[in-house]
Amino acid sequence: MQLLKDRIRKDGKIKAGNVLKVDSFLNHQMDTDLFVEIGKEFKRRFADCEINKILTIEASGIGIACVVAQQFHVPVVFAKKTQTKNIAGDVYTSKVESYTHGRVYDIIVSKEFLGKGDKVLLIDDFLANGKALEGLAAVVEESGAELVGAGIVIEKGFQVGGDIIRSKGIRLESLAIVDSMDEETGTIVFRGDEA
């Protein structure tokens, strides 16, 4: 998605440890006009699929998932990272290791909102080591719902996540795949760029 790649090149910041900061437009301050275009692109890419739920993980995926859900006219369910009084009773859980935060946490989805008969599209902002998507896919499997695929805004192609998810037979659509980043020069190379 060229519009997204251009925006990453313009406003993304490369930090030590292969961190790509896009918080000025994607996951802290959100450019809703860009989100609408992202939603349209996911709708185009998954137009051949029957989808009745979007599943994401708090917090950065929620805004994007809501805009994508508008395109499909379906609800968004988000996995919570902490048990709250609002989620009582039966839940699905999975352990997820966060690349960004460097810790493991449980994700929780109420059984009330996910189950047999649901056709689920996973949506998230980043794919690095694949742990968040693996955790979400495990929740879908445990629920008896059908996993239709996963839509990622930015995939770090130089990390293992994309390969892991694809090796599990999950349909993965990433709008921008970063093959390399150079902190010193600020250069970002996307998959498919001319050599």
Automatic annotation (TrEMBL):
Alphabetical list of InterPro entries matching this protein: PRTase-like, PRTase_dom, Pur/Pyrimidine_PRTase, Xanthine_PRibTrfase
Subcellular localization: Cytoplasm
Domain of life: Bacteria
Biological or metabolic pathway of the protein: Purine metabolism; XMP biosynthesis via salvage pathway; XMP from xanthine: step 1/1
Binding site for 5-phospho-alpha-D-ribose 1-diphosphate: A128, N129, G130, K131, A132
Residue intervals passing through the bilayer: none
One Pfam family it belongs to: Pribosyltran
Record domain Phosphoribosyltransferase: where: 51-157
EC number: 2.4.2.22
Reactions the enzyme catalyzes: XMP + diphosphate = xanthine + 5-phospho-alpha-D-ribose 1-diphosphate
SUPFAM superfamilies in the cross-refs: PRTase-like
Predominant location category: cytoplasm
Keywords in alphabetical order: Cytoplasm, Glycosyltransferase, Purine salvage, Transferase
Residues noted as binding xanthine in the record, renumbered to the chain: L20, N27, K156
Molecular function GO terms recorded: xanthine phosphoribosyltransferase activity
Role summary: Converts the preformed base xanthine, a product of nucleic acid breakdown, to xanthosine 5'-monophosphate (XMP), so it can be reused for RNA or DNA synthesis.
Assigned protein family: Belongs to the purine/pyrimidine phosphoribosyltransferase family. Xpt subfamily.
Summary of subunit composition and partner proteins: Homodimer.
Protein's name in the database: Xanthine phosphoribosyltransferase
